[in-house]
C-alpha cells in the first residue's frame, strides 16, 4: 500500500518508521461491532451498535447550528447529534432510511443520545471479532492504520527475544501469539480482559516493555560505573570541621547517614549519580553544603543549579552564611544580572577563583566555562529538562573522548519517589532518603474552606498577626483570566491591604524585577512585611520560621505536589502552623481527590503515591515535555509485581545472556536508551 508524503509525515509523528514500529503500535481500545443491541436497552455510558429507521432529521440553528436526527426500532428511540457536520452526513440520515449506528450513549436533554455517531447502511455483515482502535494523529484514519499494521504483520520479524525456558518460568505466551491476538483478537476473547489489559497477550507485552526498561537502565548504570570521575579526597578535614562548628544545630541521624553515603561516593573513581530525597523541611540544603565543602576541600569547583531565581537565592544566602566566613569564594549567576556582573562572574568561574557557583539555568549558557567542576548539585531536579541536566554535566568534562573525566552529580528532590517509580525510572540512581524531620518541627494542620467563608479567614489573619506571626496568601495567577475567573495576586493584595488596614501587606510575583522580588522577600524574612501575597514563586526553598499560616487561594487549581510544597513553607518554627486550602465550588473529581489527599495526610511519600496515580509518571518526572512515552503499556500502579520480575530477570540476562539482551533492546528500546540514561 503506497503512502503519500503527508501520510508519511503523520506516521513519523507517531514514531512509525519500520515494520517493527508498526507491530508494537498496539490498540488503545476495542470496539465491539460483533453484535447489535435493541435501542431500548442502550444505557448512558455504554458503547453500542444499533439498527433502526430514521424517524426525524433536521438542521437546527439554535442554540447553535447542528444536525439532529432520531432513530427508532420496536424497543425505543435514540437521538443523534452532530455539532460539526458535512452534507454527506446529512444525506446518511434522511427520514425513512434504515441505518446502523455506533457510538457512546449519553444522557441527553431529550433522553439517550449519541454525539457524533458513526452511521452506515443497515443490514451489512457483522464483524467476527473486536475491532481495534489505535492511537493516531489528525488526518490519519483508523482504516489506513489497520491496513499498514496488517501489512507489517506479514513482513516484520515476530521471532521471540526470550528463550522458551524463560517464558515457561514466568508464564508468558510467545511474542508472535501475543502480538497477533492484540491486533486481531480471537472471536472468543473477553472484551473486558483486553480493555483492562489483563489478557495473557497484554501481560506478555507489558513484561517485555518493563524488561527492556530494566535492561536499559542497568546498562546505563554499568556504563556510568565504567566512567571516570575526579577522586575527591580532601588533604585535610579543616573546612568540614569548621562548617560543622558553624552550624547552629546538630544534624539528625538521617542527615548524618546520607552525608556518609554521599561523601563515600565522592571519594570513588566513578561518577556519583545520587538522588537525595526528603520531605519539605527535612534539611537537604545543609547536606548539600557539607557535600560542597568536601568537594571544595578536595580542590574542585561545585555548581548548585535551581529552577527559579528565588530558590537559587535561598541556597546562595545559606551557603554564603555557612561557608563565606570559612574562606569559600561563592559566585552568583542568573540571567537577570547586568552584563558586567555576569562577565565578572564568568571570569571568576573560568579562572577557578569561584569555588562555589550558585545560580539558575544561566549556568548552562555557552559562555560559562568551569576550570575544574567536580560536583554538580541539582535542586528540584525533575523541574529541569533532560537536555539541561546533561548540559551542566558536560561543563565538567575533562580529557579526550576515550578517557573523559565527568563530574559527580547529586540530585535533590522534596517530592519523594514512590517505590515502583524508584524501581523503574530511577533504577540507575543511588537513592538517599532523609526520613526524619529536625527536632521541634510540628505537623502542619490542614483545613479546607469554601471561598464563601473568606471573611472568617481574614478575621483569623488579624488575630495571627496580633500574636506576632506572619502569613502567606498564595494565588495562582498574576493578571485576571476571564476564562478561569481566578482571583489574582494583584487584586488580592489590594483587597487585603484594605481589609487588613494597619498591617504591612506585601506582594511578590514572577513578573516583578529580580531586585524588587529580592527586596520584598528580605522584608518578609525580617518581619517588616506581615502578610505576603504571592504567586507560586515561593513554592520551594523559602524559609521564614515565623510564618505560621499559609492560605492557598483556588487550591483546586493546583497540582498535588505543588500544594504539598506550598504547605511546607510553614511549620518551620516552634509555633503550631496551619495551611488553609481555599476552594471554589463546584469541584472536579480530580480536584476533590487532591484536596482530600492534602487533608488526610502530611506524609510526603503518601502524597507522592497519590500524585503518581493522578498524573502518571511522565508529568511526575518532569519528562513529559520530551514527548517520549517510556512506558506505553505497563502501569506502575497495577503492574508492580511485573516490575519486580522484570528487574530480577534483567540482572540474570545481563550476567549470562548478552545476546538475549541485545535482541530484546533492539526490539523495544531503539532510540530511547539515551533518554532513559538522563
From TrEMBL:
Domain Helicase C-terminal: from-to ranges: 440-613
One Pfam family this sequence matches: Helicase_C
Annotated keywords: ATP-binding, DNA damage, DNA recombination, DNA repair, DNA-binding, Helicase, Hydrolase, Isomerase, Nucleotide-binding
UniProt keyword DNA damage, yes or no: yes
One GO BP annotation of this record: DNA recombination
Sample GO molecular function, one term: DNA binding
Record flagged with keyword Zinc: no
Domain Helicase ATP-binding: 265-434
Substrates-to-products reaction catalysed: ATP + H2O = ADP + phosphate + H(+); Couples ATP hydrolysis with the unwinding of duplex DNA by translocating in the 3'-5' direction
EC number: 5.6.2.4
Family statement: Belongs to the helicase family. RecG subfamily.
Function: Plays a critical role in recombination and DNA repair. Helps process Holliday junction intermediates to mature products by catalyzing branch migration. Has replication fork regression activity, unwinds stalled or blocked replication forks to make a HJ that can be resolved. Has a DNA unwinding activity characteristic of a DNA helicase with 3'-5' polarity.
This protein's name: ATP-dependent DNA helicase RecG
Protein species of origin: Pusillimonas minor
Name of the encoding gene: recG
